[in-house]
Each structure stands twice: as structure tokens, then as C-alpha cells.
Here is the input.
Amino acid sequence: MQTTTSDSKSRLPVAARVDAVVVGAGFAGLYAVHRLRKQGMTVLGIDAASDVGGTWYWNRYPGARCDVPSLNYSYTWSEEVRREWRWSEKYATQPEILRYIQFVADKFDLRTDYLFDTRVTAADFDEDAGTWYVKTSAGDRIEARYVLLATGNLSVPNYPKVPGLGDFAGPVYHTGKWPHQKVDFRGKRVGVIGTGSSGVQAIPIIAEEAEELLVFQRTPNFSVPAHNGPLTDEDHLRFEADLPKFRKSLENFGRVPSSAYSAPVPSDEEQRARYNHLWENGGESFLVAFPNLLTSQEVNDGAAAFVREKIRTIVKDPATARALSATTSPFGVKRVCVDTNYFATFNRPNVKLVNLRQEPIETITHNGLMTSTGRYEFDELVIATGYDAMTGAILAMDIQGRDGRKLRDEWAAGPQSYLGLMVHGFPNLFTITGPGSPSVIGNVLLHGEHHVDYVLRLIEHAAGKQEPTIDVTAEAQDKWVAHVAAVADKTLFPIANSWYLGANIPGKPRVFMPYVGEGYRTKCAEIAALGYVGFCFNETPVLSDSAKSA
Ligand code: NAP
Here is the structure.
């Protein structure tokens, strides 16, 4: 890397020229830096955090852990890492996941190519030079041929638009931006707003510590038990032995299978037996109980009723049990929470559920909040209101592609992309696990690996050209966007006000963003086998046979 720095002690390049900039030091970003380097390219990674970790750097709230089993939520690209790392639990805690990421960063010396504490603010494409100019909050101006946005789908915290938030006198913690030092809730009255995956994990732990806990719930979520437990060497060995099978299964991680549309509705007995079994085993495998769980309202109703019945048996107060039972959207079309003791926490004498459907928040006050019918006092406030998901981190940057077109304008009515990987008119810019790809459905870590590998192959494919540019055609993009929507429309997903649809952010266009169709990797491989149909190399589009003969 050629650099000129303003301060010889800082490794901050004020100006630099590299082959590739990677934005983000989470799982996908680190892997991208590793791969690009191995390919012999100069690379600069940039992250707003002070160290590696991505979402796992920020999400330090009590109870934070992954709801994908640790053995699956691990890189597949390094046999060495797999051999040397041992997970201690079925569902790893945030500190353990962060240690894993740090272990990988140390092992492959990945930090040396990163600028930390630095936020990318803008990126402009210079058509003549075939170069991106990447600008940062620290005043850097980096020239790069390629830009990989590994900015994470859940990385821009969403704060509730509630009057008075700034007036609260006590500490306010967002789960997605938790302090590094332990927050001690002992002897405190704590309010929590939000009952998605983050709230559902944090609430039982805070309840054990706080003197009093008020949970402000707008919409109840479906949650299934984790049944977490220790992992043994045998578990690791068994997983290694099953690795080929696991790798094969990646193809359809999280997708709605095509068999869903012809599958019969299982009998009540069959459903009950299956759900009982899955409830006892725990985890999000509940989502694949039946192929048509996310396409048939009738089958879905059975799963929803089963979970509601479980809540009634766990929660002693019938009114609280009712309030905790999700009824406004089908099971699984908002991300299902995976919990430890969540519902049972509401049996504790120090925990009270406030149902915001009955009494909406009117204002936060200096010592609590007021709803339409009540006044609640607490000393500390935890905000678990989620993220501006999938597009938030990308659109936080001012990205300008060919002919001065702005990504913010291109995506004003919702994200447009080909394969969730590239946007027409933004050459050599890659959205790793971007909207339009399976990304957050299934296992985002492994979807990220797949995207990085694909980008590297695209770059390799283009490498023969002088000053290579890779773009996608408007036609391929339009077709893909329509396909993503059509696949989602055949499922129950669009019914719910989920962050998959941007429905959690006031004013955000309501567009279903992840790809839930079958065979995403196969489609990507087929496109590659046909010379990358739908992509453009140095402005020459690769057309399908039918388009050529048209
Ligand atoms: P979330 O699922 O978006 O949940 C946000 C919660 O805040 C919802 O209950 C929402 O209610 C509530 N809320 C938002 N604005 C509000 C307002 N103005 N007033 C009152 N309540 C409000 O966010 P999250 O829990 O942070 O989870 C986001 C995603 O991150 C998850 O779906 C998951 O994919 C990932 N995650 C994973 C893990 C894990 O691996 N275990 C842990 C945490 C997060 P409404 O539903 O009414 O909007």
C-alpha cells in the first residue's frame, strides 16, 4: 500500500492507493481482507470500532449470544481454525464469539491492514480513472479499484421516536451500542423498551440483578427455548465428520423450499408430536418443522397456537400470558427469538410487563416514562429497539457511482441489486450479504463467506482486462429484484411488520429485502458458468443465450 500519513506514529493513511477497500471488520470483512491479500492485492480495511468484531464488538448487553449453534456459526474456510478452536457452549456468548474473531484476526494478522475508529462517510466513482475515492470521518481519501461493503445488516441502532428521550436523567443503554464496562443493575429500577431477540435475551439476565424491572412491550414476539448447554470434544468431532453434509446443506439455509407449495397439511397429531419434539430440543430448527410452515397459513396457525399454549403453561398470570402471546403476525415471519427463561421471567415478583398496545408511550420523563394511562418510574433505561436493518449502514455513506448517480436516490423506493451483490451503475462496488441475497435468512456468517468467494472469482474473471470494471446490467438487476419480491410474495413473510421489510423504521420503503428462494448458491454458480450472465465487464454486458438471439 502506498501511504502518506500526517503523523508517523499513526498508521492512519490520510491518502493511500490500494487495490481494494473493505468496509467493516466483522466476520465478512475480515474474511474479505484475508482473501484479497492472498490474491496478492493491496487492501485497506476500515471500521468505526476500535477493534475487530463487527456486530459482536458492539452488542455487549447482558445475555447476548448467537441464536445459531456455535459449530455452524464458524468460518468454514480454514481447517486450521476449525482444528484449533473449541466452542464451550451450543450457543456461544458474545464474549466467546468476540474471542473467536480476535483469534482469527491474530492468527492471520488481519488488524495490520485496518484503520479502526474510522467511519467511511462517502465513496465517489471516477469513471475516467476507473477508481473509487473513499472518504472517511478522519479526513482520509483512499483511492481503490474495488470497494467491498461488509457493513453488516444489523449495525445501525434504531432509537425509538419517543418525545423526551433526551430528558431522561439516568443512564440510557442501547443493546446494539453497549458500554465496554459491566453495567451493574443491582439495586436499580430498570426500564426496557423492546422485546425482539435482543430484549428477549437481556430481560431474564437484567431481571436477576435489578431490584425492579419494567418491560415495555409494543408487540409480543414468538420465542422458542434455546436449551443451551456445554459442547464436548465429541460434539466437535461429530460435527467435523458431518462437515461435508453440513457444507451441502448451506445451499438451502433459511430458504423456503419449492416443495412447500405442494406439501400436505400435516394432521394435528403430527404437528403436535413434531412441535413437542422441537420444543424439547430447542433452537430455531422449529422453523423447518414442516416445509410449508412459512407458506401455509393453516400450518402456521398450528405452530403459533402451540407456542401460545406453551406460554400459558409457563406464565402464571393469565393476563400477562395473553399479553406475551404474539397474535398479530404469523409464526417465523419475524425473526423467531431463541431464549433462556424468557417467559418464566414474568413470574418473578420484581418484573412487570407494560402492554404498550393498551397504553402507548406518550413521553419519556426525567425519571421514567408516561403512557396514555400511567406513569412509570425507573433509574436506568435499556433500549432494545433494534436496527435500521440491511440498508441502514450502506445508505449512511454518501455513495456516488457512474454519471453522478447517488445510491440513496437509486434505493429511494427500496434496495435494487443483482443477486444482492452489485448495483447497476456502481462498478466494482460489492454489497457483501446485501439486500436481495439470503443474508440474514439462515446463517449470515456463511452467506458472507460465499459472497466474498464470489467477488474474488469475479475479480479474477475481470483481471485480464486493462483497468477492469465490473458492473451489472439494468435488465439483470430488474429481473432479480422482481424475482426476490415474487418469491417472498408466495410466502407469509410480507404479512408481518418486520425489519426484513423495513417496517420497523418510520418512513422506510416497505420492501421485502432478503432472498428466501431456494438454491441461491446454485443460481450464482450457474451465472458464473455462463460467463457471469447479467454482469458487465468493462461495459460489455454478458448476455444470456435468449437475450443474444432476441
Ligand atoms: P427487533 O427485533 O427489531 O426488536 C425491536 C423491538 O423494539 C420490538 O419489540 C419493537 O416493537 C420494539 N420497538 C421498536 N420501536 C419501538 C418504539 N418506538 N416503542 C416501543 N417499542 C419499540 O430488534 P432486536 O431485538 O435488536 O433484534 C434485531 C435482530 O438482530 C434480530 O431479529 C436478530 O436477527 C438479530 N439478533 C440476533 C441475536 C441472536 O443471535 N440471538 C440477538 C439479538 C439480535 P415492534 O415489534 O412493535 O416494532
